[in-house]
């Protein structure tokens, strides 16, 4: 929209919070998307307690009914934590993660609770926390499992927890509470609203004490298109025209309320209509800071990282990230080595260098499909006289780079197969093993033996190193190419690599290339011999950070993946980790 590729978009209110202070996003709110015009907000959240509670501070030491830590049905982590952030003193024990500090504070404040459902995206840590803070599951119907199958889990379950007299206070949606009390025919005189000012009020649903309200999804557009979009939205309401119905369906069949053009709001003014909503995202941080410094290497990566930061904050991800740009990838590795940065996403071929600098992976990026896995192979022409890796002695080779994944895979294999000393300079040993070679970009390394780049030609440079190395094979310059098969298969007919049965009536094509193995292998098998396979990349940190710090960053990344990754439940957020960004693929993270 900012690049004028579209005229308007639909945002969740959290996403509006994320962009409201960004000078790049000069937008106006034109419409709300809701089922009925008289509905002023999507829902309101209240605290309901038994009548023996006289004021808010009386709930200390009582039993809590909580809908769960995870986001469900537009119930974000910020909504989940809102009550406790206002009434429970914040803990910042440096020996606990930020999330465990929260759990620990809840455990101390309440005698017991039912907070069923997942506490962490990591199942092991989830189990450890529930075992350590058992009183926060003690009020559940099944305290030993404390999961989403518990009858007191979720927006409905939390009300049964309260009205079954299991808990003393419940943190609930007002609309669901109103329906529950009516359908279950529960006497409202036995309960009270807890109010943000510390007082209590009778449970009269028409006069609630609201703690926080959730706005509706909204339509935003650039300032120059606002009048046009607002007029169009008026025309599509309650219409039977085909294209207008299609527009409504794209926006999930909400009723569209029209906003007078004269009162179109900038994001901050629109959000101010919902007291406490924006302030809920401005919680205090621990000191010293737990913020994570993320290193990036381009303007585009910096913008995407900043977008991730804004989205993570409004969805309650902790710790917060801050994005810093270095001039190149080598500088980012050095910055983490020197503890000037905390994390950096490295490519597979950079992992060895990262380890040599004292960096260690925290988490790996894995392919969703087997064909997207990086598969490193040694490829020769089909009529070659080479049949195993050892046969290559004295041959001509091409590598994608010095100490690339293919280079390292070959060196490791030969070290394991050979009686010779392969532990000295890998460059010297490879140079002696092959007659002549082209190690792409080796001209940048003047210390490498001359024959490692004697076959390189200036007119054969490619942006893709794997295709570049493969070109040397197809051109007959080298006898073997060490490449990522995934990259080659996208540009070369897969049939060129594998034998197919010959139909005696119709002669089919024959392969042009073979994949060498460690020993003599059946070249007709479907799965080729792999020298190595790799992840799509890794997020690394300094190996000397504490286990607690590593754990905290790991959980932060898991939560980002859950909220913005490939397996999102419910409506897609405006920001996605692995999708194209500003029309560009593989920014920070690979699309695969």
Automatic annotation (TrEMBL):
Residues 1-279, 292-592 form the Transferrin-like domain. SUPFAM superfamilies: Periplasmic binding protein-like II. GO terms for biological process: iron ion transport. One of its GO terms (cellular component) is plasma membrane. PROSITE patterns: TRANSFERRIN_LIKE_4 (PS51408). SMART domains: TR_FER. This is Transferrin. It comes from Camponotus floridanus (Florida carpenter ant). The lineage of its organism: Eukaryota, Metazoa, Ecdysozoa, Arthropoda, Hexapoda.
